Amino acid sequence: MAEVINMPRLSDTMEEGTVAKWLKNVGDKVEEGDILAEIETDKATMEFESFYQGTLLHIGIEEGDGAPVDTLLAIIGEEGEDISGLLNGGGSQKKEENASEDKAEEKSAETSDDSKDEEGDTSATEIPEGVEIVKMPRLSDTMEEGTVASWLKQVGDEVEEGDILAEIETDKATMEFESFYSGKLLHIGIQEGESAPVDAVLAVIGPDGTDVDAVLNAKSGSKKSTKTEAKKEEASKASETEDTSSKESTSATSDGNRIFASPLAKKIAEDKGIDLSKVSGTGDNGRIIKKDIENYKPAEAPKAAPEVSKSEKASVPAVSMAIPAGEEGVEESKNSNMRKAIAKALGNSKFTAPHFYLTIEVDMDNAIASRAQINSLPDTKVSFNDMVLKACAMALRKHPQVNTTWNGDTTKQYKHIHMGVAVAVDEGLVVPVIKHADLLGLTQIGAAVKELAGKARNKKIAPSEMEGSTFTVSNLGMFGIQEFTSIINQPNSAILSVGAIVEKPVVKNGEIVIGNTMKLTLACDHRTVDGAVGAQFLQTLRYYVENPVTMLA
């Protein structure tokens, strides 16, 4: 089914965008994460990634042309698909009609307001120059509302361009939100822990002494004179130059060595009095992030335990055996957007897809020996999870019925194999995706998993890196869980649950010996995967896991 892509809002003040350059042409194949175009906003020229895969069927805005946010930018679908309904009618036509009606109403209202102003109506207040209303940004393609996790600035604080204003929780992750303006934080519109739709008033920034109530009540469009726009454009260009130089200057220490750290990490370090030069960064290219500051512990000299004299030991009172009178209590906390998104997705999967489960027990003796040999090589590190991922990818190639999606009247069978890897984070669970896992070697899979899992835990993973999976693996073996079942990560048709490796008595060649085994449980969507198909997949998977040499070719 074709997907309509609209002009995105890439900054909080963006009202229209200009296509500076198309990186794909009509007829080209598009993968999730591919750069579709370079789009020029009111602040910068930014790369725009595709959240869909397929063939680029239509380009709605040519290079050099500008269009308002939410205007048809492109259509991606299957090659040869009929998109005339999306171009000439159907839901898109209604949206355009509604949009034109809204614009007509807005224009009528503006005309009415203008006439009132001409007649001497002084009730409308113009937004003073230099005052900026910051709105709740759209930080992901599916974001409809955001929750303010924490404010890094308070009312009355001075704000510079590039400063982190707040941490905003979306349906996918908690992200730092930078200010595009300089001035004093005059008003906070959404308190910590509160949620609000995209474009709700988040804050007001401007000069000291501004009448905030008047700004909030000012009519829309009151700050749109040609002179003001020209000044803003010039200020924007100048601020970009200043921002670049300021960031370069703040990333250097007194002795000239550069220290790369996120603005939030710098803020927390400053508040805690931590010297950034003594902190090791775990972010990209050694960049210091929030987690590094929170986990930083200065080196301390070990303290000797104080000696206790015999008299002190003798004076220790006897432990009372009285039963304490406890108090009952309950604490209720607000569900995060990520928690609600997880609940919605998994609830939908469990109650719409008829799950059934198949479990096998795998001999891991050869896998243990092979992993030890592989990891003895220089600069090589492979986990058992990496071996399972590679084995699954190879088994999916032999059993494509498992690499499918139920689509109502049709079933999609994917020719590519993108492995989802469940990763636990503080707020819940995310599923980074290893693209074309069947074409990667064990060490490549291991490196990809390590990188994406690190990004996920540090809240730096992009939405495009968590989309497009065709099969998912969930591993709780590292927690000592021997066997469990997972809910299918839709639109996948199956998910594999990986348990712990257990040493126990087993029967080999008619004798009882000590062996190592691991249980694997496959959850299948019965609409697309029958019992026999799932069983055959597990037989192939067992062969690869028990004979790792077959995965090295």
UniProtKB/TrEMBL annotation:
The keyword Manganese does not apply. GO terms for biological process: pyruvate decarboxylation to acetyl-CoA. The keyword Acyltransferase applies. Its cofactor is (R)-lipoate. GO terms for molecular function: dihydrolipoyllysine-residue acetyltransferase activity. It catalyses: N(6)-[(R)-dihydrolipoyl]-L-lysyl-[protein] + acetyl-CoA = N(6)-[(R)-S(8)-acetyldihydrolipoyl]-L-lysyl-[protein] + CoA. Residues 84-135, 221-258 are annotated as: Disordered. It comes from the Bacteria. Its EC number is 2.3.1.12. It is an enzyme of class 2 (transferase). Residues 260-297 form the Peripheral subunit-binding (PSBD) domain. Forms a 24-polypeptide structural core with octahedral symmetry. Belongs to the 2-oxoacid dehydrogenase family. This is Acetyltransferase component of pyruvate dehydrogenase complex.
